[in-house]
């Protein structure tokens, strides 16, 4: 079966021809959560931007359902982009401070009117109800509909960012360190939410993190990026297997997994 996402032999450099990404390849199946781990500077966010078609690779391709994203333009690119949404590390930076919650979560739908028809048909004429339904999906009460970002906790803000990201019913959610800015006690709640969404709406993930425990909890498979190269790919239950790359073992040991 064709994978949902294929990352094929991606190369990228910015200056001095030093490869930030060097021959990076992996696939993500439909409904799969793929964890990408690596220390700061290993190239994770660069790969996220390339996957989101926000940046072009120097070589290699990214295909979604067999379609090369970097060959698309205009309407076709817009149509493909709907299927890949993103959750960034810092929800405060990714939410518009001037928009109330309800407008924030349904804003993407204004750009894709067709998507609304396919979504919650019974409430689609009432934008506030649609927003409330999205909040419900991420465990937030409709009481928050008229709040502004500064009136929310960090965890609530990240939930709003997630509600917005799933409003277009994407196939793939790219999460770039989505819990790193949150208190430890809140991180686990957000990880649980990602896990619930995986099961309830069949969402697939490229889940980028430097937190091996989080990746082991959430992900089906894991790739390890080191200096822009994928040095290890394995099912997450085999994280502590003796077959792991020495670098993976050192990472696991460092956090006492
Ligand atoms: P990570 O997300 O794993 O911390 P990044 O992808 O952000 O890694 O960065 C990988 C490397 O690429 C770093 O050395 C960083 O300085 C460099 N880099 C990232 N983006 C740019 C850019 N726009 N211009 C120049 N160098 C960049
Ligand atoms: Mg990063």
CATH level-1 class of the largest domain: Alpha Beta
Total separate domains: 2
What class would the helix/strand composition place it in?
alpha/beta
The kinds of small molecule bound in this structure are:
adenosine-5'-diphosphate, magnesium ion
Helix content: 25-40%
What's the tally of helices? 10
Tell me, briefly, the overall form: globular
How many distinct beta strands? Answer: 10
Q: What is the average of the pLDDT values?
A: 93
Biggest sheet record: 6 strands, mixed
Distance between the termini: 34 Å
CATH architecture of the largest domain: 3-Layer(aba) Sandwich
Radius of gyration: 18 Å
Strand order of the largest sheet: 6-7-8-3-9-10
Compile the SSE list and pairings.
Elements: E1 5-13, E2 19-28, E3 33-37, H1 44-51, E4 59-64, E5 67-68, H2 74-81, E6 84-87, H3 91-94, H4 101-111, H5 113-117, H6 127-137, H7 154-166, E7 172-176, H8 184-201, E8 204-209, H9 212-218, E9 221-226, E10 229-235, H10 246-254
Parallel strand pairs: 3-8, 3-9, 6-7, 7-8
Antiparallel strand pairs: 1-2, 1-4, 4-5, 9-10
Helix pairs in contact: 4-6, 4-7, 7-8
Residues 14-15, 20, 38, 40-46 line the site of adenosine-5'-diphosphate.
Report what the structure shows.
One of its GO terms (molecular function) is ATP hydrolysis activity. Belongs to the ABC transporter superfamily. Pfam families: ABC_tran. The chain has helices at about 45-50, 75-80, 90-95, 100-110, 115, 125-135, 155-165, 185-200, 210-220, 245-255, and strands at about 5-15, 20-30, 35, 60-65, 65-70, 85, 170-175, 205-210, 220-225, 230-235. A hairpin with a 2-residue loop joins strand 4 (about 60-65) and strand 5. Helix 4 (about 100-110) packs parallel to helix 7 and helix 7 packs parallel to helix 8 (about 185-200). The radius of gyration is 18 Å and the shape is globular. Strands 6-7-8-3-9-10 form a 6-stranded mixed beta sheet, with helices on both faces. The protein has a 4-stranded antiparallel beta sheet with strand order 2-1-4-5, covered by helices on one side. The chain folds into 2 domains: about 1-85 and about 170-255, 3-Layer(aba) Sandwich (Rossmann fold), CATH 3.40.50; about 95-170, no CATH class. Helix content is about 35%, strand content about 25%. By secondary structure, it is α/β, with parallel strands linked by helices. The structure holds adenosine-5'-diphosphate and magnesium ion (MG). Adenosine-5'-diphosphate binds near residues 15, 20, 44 and 46.
């Amino acid at each position: 079966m064709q994978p949902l996402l294929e990352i094929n032999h991606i190369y990228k450099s910015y200056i001095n021809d030093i490869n930030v990404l060097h021959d990076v390849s992996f696939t993500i199946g439909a409904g799969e959560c793929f964890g990408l781990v690596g220390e700061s500077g290993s190239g994770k966010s660069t790969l996220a931007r390339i996957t989101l078609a926000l940046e072009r690779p120097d070589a290699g391709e990214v295909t979604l359902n067999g379609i090369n994203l970097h060959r698309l333009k205009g309407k076709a690119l817009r149509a493909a982009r709907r299927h890949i949404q993103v959750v960034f590390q810092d929800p405060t930076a990714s939410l518009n401070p001037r928009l109330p919650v309800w407008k924030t979560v349904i804003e993407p739908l204004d750009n894709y009117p067709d998507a609304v028809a396919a979504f919650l048909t019974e409430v689609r004429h009432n934008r506030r109800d649609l927003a409330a339904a999205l909040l419900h999906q991420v465990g937030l009460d409709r009481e928050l509909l008229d709040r502004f970002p500064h009136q929310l906790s960090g965890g609530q803000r990240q939930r709003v960012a997630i509600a917005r990201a799933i409003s277009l019913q994407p196939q793939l959610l790219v999460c770039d360190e989505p819990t790193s800015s949150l208190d430890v006690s809140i991180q686990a709640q957000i990880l649980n939410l990602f896990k619930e969404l995986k099961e309830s709406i069949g969402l697939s993930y490229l889940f980028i993190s430097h937190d091996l425990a989080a990746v082991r909890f959430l992900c089906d498979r894991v790739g390890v990026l080191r200096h822009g190269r994928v040095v290890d790919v394995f099912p997450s239950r085999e994280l502590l297997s003796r077959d792991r790359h020495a670098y993976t073992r050192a990472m696991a040991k460092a956090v006492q997994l």
